[in-house]
Specification:
Blueprint: E1 4-5, E2 25-38, E3 41-57, E4 62-71, E5 74-83, E6 88-93, E7 96-100, E8 115-122, E9 129-138, E10 141-148, E11 153-162, E12 165-178, E13 199-200, E14 205-206
Parallel strand pairs: 1-14, 7-13
Antiparallel strand pairs: 2-3, 2-12, 3-4, 4-5, 5-6, 6-7, 8-9, 9-10, 10-11, 11-12
The structure holds 2-acetamido-2-deoxy-beta-D-glucopyranose (4 copies).
Length: about 210
């Protein structure tokens, strides 16, 4: 089964008072590796490597991703548009659009019940940046999310077992900037414009990052 790695967002409503909330709008690169084994058997496992440009807007509750994903050696060009206000997600894989109901909107804040699991810094000398690592649960997975003092995501790891499938995800966030990368990032992908997709309740993609 081809599984696409997509984003994930902060697991609470944006209005919840978590330890930190991201900027209202941001964009950047999300690079991830996901490993999974069904029933503990490597033969039923998959390894996904993906790299996406992410655009995030907390006010309009939309997230867009564009990039490439490779699962067990099979590469795909991927576009994802999630509109939480309309409760719809479009996923385009190698030109084929699928319309789905997205997972619950995680919002843009670290969960209020997250605990601080570490402090540290990146870089050297006067250019060093302090970071904080939070840990919390996403569904049945344990998550570790590292952010800067102004709540810019740096790295995330999560792992857990769902229905006998063991999964481990690591994500690096790089080049994060405030604002969006353009004013058409939330346009409906052209592949979806004919409305040929079918709604299904499933979420055929790997867990997204807590962020995007
Ligand atoms: C997607 O397209 C690329 C480039 O054309 C191709 O190499 C790849 O095999 C395709 N992936 C799938 C899953 O069909
Ligand atoms: C980073 O953390 C250290 C240790 O808590 C502190 O002394 C320093 O002022 C912090 N730097 C910044 C830029 O906040
Ligand atoms: C925090 O709250 C969520 C949802 O209410 C819950 O699933 C989770 O187990 C709680 N604890 C941690 C450490 O995340
Ligand atoms: C786990 O399995 C149960 C029973 O087959 C199913 O209802 C549920 O949707 C599954 N959960 C996930 C996350 O796949």
């Amino acid at each position: 089964m081809l599984r696409l790695a997509v984003l994930a967002c902060f697991a609470v409503l944006a209005s919840a008072a978590g330890p930190c909330c991201t900027p209202k709008q941001w964009h950047g690169t999300e690079s991830m590796v996901i490993g999974s084994m069904a029933n503990g058997k490597a033969a039923q496992g998959y390894l996904t490597k993906a790299s996406y440009m992410v655009n995030f807007d907390a006010d309009s509750r939309r997230v867009a991703l564009i990039g490439t994903s490779e699962t067990n050696g099979y590469a795909s060009n991927v576009k994802v548009l999630i509109d939480y206000n309309r409760n719809v997600q479009y996923t385009v894989s190698n030109g084929t659009c699928t319309k789905q109901i997205p997972n619950a909107d995680p919002g843009s804040c670290v969960p209020a019940n997250a605990t601080v699991s570490g402090h540290g810094f990146l870089g050297v000398g006067s250019s060093a940046v302090n970071v904080t690592q939070y840990s919390f649960m996403i569904d049945r997975s344990t998550a570790y999310l590292t952010v800067t003092d102004n709540c810019i995501p740096v790295a995330e790891t999560y792992y857990g077992v769902t229905n006998g499938t063991y999964a481990f995800t690591t994500i690096a966030f790089t080049g994060i900037k405030g604002g969006l990368s353009g004013n058409t990032v939330f346009n409906l992908p052209t592949e979806c414009a004919l409305g040929t997709g079918t709604i299904n309740g499933g979420f055929a993609v790997g867990r997204r990052s807590y962020f995007a």
